[in-house]
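Data deposition worksheet. Section B asks for the primary sequence of the deposited chain exactly as it was used as input, without tags or linkers unless they were present during the calculation. Section C holds the resulting structure in token form. Section D is free text for depositor observations; keep each observation to a single sentence. Incomplete worksheets are returned to the depositor.
Section A, Depositor: J.P.
Section B:
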Amino acid sequence: MESKKHYKLYKSGKQWKTLAITAAVAVAGVVSLNNVTANADVTSSAVATVAVAQTSSASSVVLESSTSAVATSSTSEASAAASSAVVSSSASSSVTSATSSVVDAASASTVASSADTAATSATSSSEVSVTSASSEASTVSDSSSVVTSTTSLTSQSTESATSDSADSSATSTQDSSVTSAEVVTREVAAVATSSTKNGWVSENGTYTYYTNGKVASGENYSYLPSISGTGYNWYLVKDSVALSGVQKWYGSYYYFDPTTYLKLDHQDYVKSQWGDWYMVGSDGIVQSGVQKWYGKYYYFDPVTYLKLDHQDYVKSQWGDWYMVGSDGIVQSGVQKWYGKYYYFDPVTYLKLDHQDYVKSQWGDWYMVGSDGIVQSGLVQWYGHYYYFNPVTYLKATNTTFSYNGMSLTADNTGIITGTTTSSQFLLKIYQATLDGWKEYGVLPSVTAAQAILESGWGQSALATEANNLFGIKGSYNGQYVIMSTAEYGSGGYYYVNAEFRKYPSFYESVVDHGYFLYSNSRYSNLLHQTSYATVTSLLQSDGYATSPTYASSLNNVITTYGLQSWDTAAGV
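Section C:
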């Protein structure tokens, strides 16, 4: 056997190089690498070669058949007979299936050169280029494992070429000018890339979790591989789509970070997918009620979960009531609400529930009642009276003034004293008459007038000895005095000794008088009446006093000393 060595130009990078090709010349036929002459039995305008790639290196092509024999020696004589070959007569040939063209040889010899080299050497005047390549992985069937790739080879030469029979196990090189390593690599990569989706896939602005190309239906809080690519995390998914923003889950609203899709693990004030802002706790749950945030307390509506945007007196999640400003912040100090001023403790933020003299947020001092309302007018505090300006609500000091029929003086500490005997008496009973109205519904002006008439401005013996201003018999908390009193009978007036209630002060006497009227059904008709003339008339008709001028006498005292202003002070 005679061997001939030929040289062919090929391009490496930007330079042409020479490739030495050794061809074995057999008796059966002669192949010339210097021209396009082929075996006379098979002539065509183009030669198509099947290139099958499976590995990522794209360095070798292997066709395997269950019946084909593997050539073992390059020096052995071969009788090559191709049982099947695919030859295209057009200028552009496409090989679509490697399994349909399997070389069956009883006795095959090894071809030293690659299939790509053989295709290239078929014509020296033809320029063969790869114009399109698409690869598709085939399944394994029976005993063969074949990966089929479709390669379009275009020949610019109309001259015929011959196709050498490729052995069923042929090894190709990467040095061919027809198929470069770069092209084959791209083809193999396309084959290796599966169309089946698995894991997290970014699509439609979010992430979808696939399992073998399928998604799970329903909404679940699932432990899945991390979107970030490290470890596992919990995600709220709906139809396998990761959810973010504010989401409802088992009766609560949670917030999921729009970047990581993880539930928030720290307190924060966040913007939702709708543009609204919500307070989220360290458990990721959207909060409502009173919440502390950067040193201040805010209130979030339990229905909308939004921060309150108007002043309101609201009930917290603990059952306590708080004053909230238009900025959503829980208020303390002096606050105006429906025409009145209230005081809220700066520590507890609760409305004051006992009388106290307190310092406001502005540094001024105010008197606050047991209802939490900032007081004005004449107020009793630790056994003394003070006057608070009804405009400024500040305490009066070093001044003399007239108030509700009383001439009063405030010293440098604000303590009020009456400048006259009558003023001093009225000052002692003033607060008691207001409290009697509040507790029992007896009008303050009428109570004061009764006390003046029946005690002689607090100068009677019963008043001075027992602080009893109304002559009520019996005992008070077990305390009483025995006094002589005139009784009226069939024979006229007569005197007897009787027990009379003894009180610690005028205050208790006035309040007990209200209770006396309240607890006797005969006087129920005068309770909570707002006209002093009506009340005085009912007292007389109900038999409180036998004097036919009792009602008119009371009316005269009220108008003379301006006691109707006491009714106004009581809120009548």
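Section D:
The chain is about 15% helix and 30% strand.
The two ends are 136 Å apart (CA to CA).
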